[in-house]
Amino acid sequence: MKTGKGVFLLVCVFSLVFLLTILNPPQSIAAAVKARFEVSKMGDMSDFDPSNPVIPTGDTIKIAVVGSFSGPAAAAGEGFFLDVQWAAHDYNKRGGIMVDGKKKLIQVFKADTAGKPAQAKQVCEQMVLQNGVKFLIGSDGSHIVKVMNQVADKYKVIAMNFVSMSDDLQDATNFSRYAFMPWWQTSQSGKAFAYFYGQIRKKEKKFYILCQDYLFGHDLAEGFKNGLKEYYPGAQIVGEDFHKLFMTDFAPYISKIKASGAEVIFTGDWNPDALNLLKQARQMGVHIPIAQIFIVDPVALSSVGIEGSKGLVLGTPVYDGNPVFKTPEMIKYYNIWNNLYKTKFKPPYNSRAYEWGWDPLAMETYWLLSVIERAGSVDPEKIIKVWEGDSYQYVNGHVATMRACDHNTIQDLYITEYVPPDQQKVAFNIPPYHWGQGDYSFTGPAYKIPSEKVIPWMDPKLERCKGKNPASAN
Predict the structure, then answer these.
(1) Distance of CA 70 to CAs 29, 119, 143, 258, Å?
(2) Diameter over CA atoms, the chain
(3) Is the dihedral of CA 369, 21, 26, 220 positive or negative?
(4) Which of 3.30.70.980, 3.40.50.2300, 3.40.50.300, 3.90.1150.10 is the CATH number of 8-184+325-411?
(5) For domain 187-316+413-452, is the CATH number 1.10.10.10?
(6) What is this structure's pTM?
(7) Which of 184, 191, 287, 295 has the fewest CB atoms in 10 Å of its CB?
(8) What's the rounded Cα separation, in Å, for the pair 468 and 22?
């Protein structure tokens, strides 16, 4: 994404989507898994306090969380730090990681970009040159990730993009051997929805696209349209609009949607736009499904209630089917976090934004730490050698495979439908058998989009990828 504002919603997204998974990876990928997260190896997390973290100093493995810790998107930095520090705290309680012949603890730094590219460059260089950081993790905004990756490339340290979705981050112009992208691409998101409606649901045919008027919104819309051409040629785009950011009056657009005969609204909006669109659509009598990737905030959903949130459709890169809690390990991990959230977390970490528990950014950090552990070094060349072509299984069973030539991630995607609390047991299969406080509709049925149907885009101009199979890890 290209703007810092509204990223608080992203924190909520990441907090949600990871809980929508199970330990049931597809066999074709599971057979190639090289490492996995194991709950049995976790350290004692009982003293974990993100508001007062225990951070070692000295001869450590140094990681910088690159994000907005100030300004309008400060909540993004808070969430990023929570996830990275969680994984670091776990490994530190295990005794650290053996690197270059010595066991070292993990030290996490906050690299505040305030959402500004110039500040991002300055703080990333400071982290590398003054603090000795070997790993940069972030960030909220593709424009910031590009800067982070450029710094990593210049000084030969590893950068991990665990948030931003722009396809061009790993293209021939921007690719760096030192930059890795475990998340999903914008084009994959649009394509996943097209596959769902055209190959799985096979019901609604008339779609109205309404997205924010900047690069991300246009790219997401284009990905959806291209996906429909491939997977649902009988579908019809009955309207397409792009609105300015931070809209307060969606009535003109909603009136056009009503008149168009649309059966589904497709949007990439994030808050506050997403919530304003949802609220005003329902108020104006538009109750058709809204296909989206960001309307997951418990506060926002509860504000429209069970009926208002019913019928939303969510796309996510880490949902892995139902039920969510399929193994004792999954339940144990959830309880470790949830008990701390309820009993020890302080503001802002005890807010409803975190009531679902942990999220995939923690698991992406675990993937990085696993790579460091298996490389036995912080030497970037040894890290690259391990990570290229690597497959890692998260605690929930989701399997992510790092494509070697361009460092994009091959993985299954999922589409889920929001249903009332009394129908959520199909997903949330442990007490209380519904999400959160049960005052909104949320995920129920889930549908897999196989990885081979949504392969991340590979730039044919990238020399490393010429002659490579996009669906292959190598």
Answers:
(1) 40, 12, 17, 40
(2) 68
(3) negative
(4) 3.40.50.2300
(5) no
(6) 0.90
(7) 287
(8) 31
Tell me which long-range contacts 213-216 makes (C-beta under 8 A, separation of at least 24).
213/242, 213/243, 213/244, 213/245, 214/2, 214/3, 214/245, 215/2, 215/142, 215/166, 216/1, 216/2, 216/142, 216/165, 216/166, 216/186, 216/268
Q: What is the mean pLDDT of residues 374-402?
A: 96
Helices 251-260 & 273-283, crossing angle to 10 degrees?
A: 60
Provide the token pair at 216. Answer: 């991300």
Q: How many CA atoms lie within 13 A of 381 on its CB side?
A: 0
> Measured between alpha carbons, how far is residue 51 from residues 74, 78, 101, 351 in Å?
14, 9, 33, 13
Position 404 pLDDT exceeds 90: yes
Q: What is the pLDDT of residues 29-83, one digit of tens each?
A: 444 799 999 999 999 999 999 999 999 999 999 999 999 999 888 888 999 999 9
Backbone angles phi, psi at 134, to 5 degrees: -105, -10
- What's the whole-number mean pLDDT along residues 267-272? 89
**Whole-angstrom Cα Rg for the chain:** 21
Task: Reply yes or no on whether the pLDDT at 137 is more than 80.
Answer: yes
Three-state DSSP state, 386: helix
The DSSP H or E segment spanning 237 is strand 236-243
Q: How far is residue 203 CA from its own chain's centroid?
A: 28
Handedness of CA 381, 385, 386, 392 (dihedral sign): positive
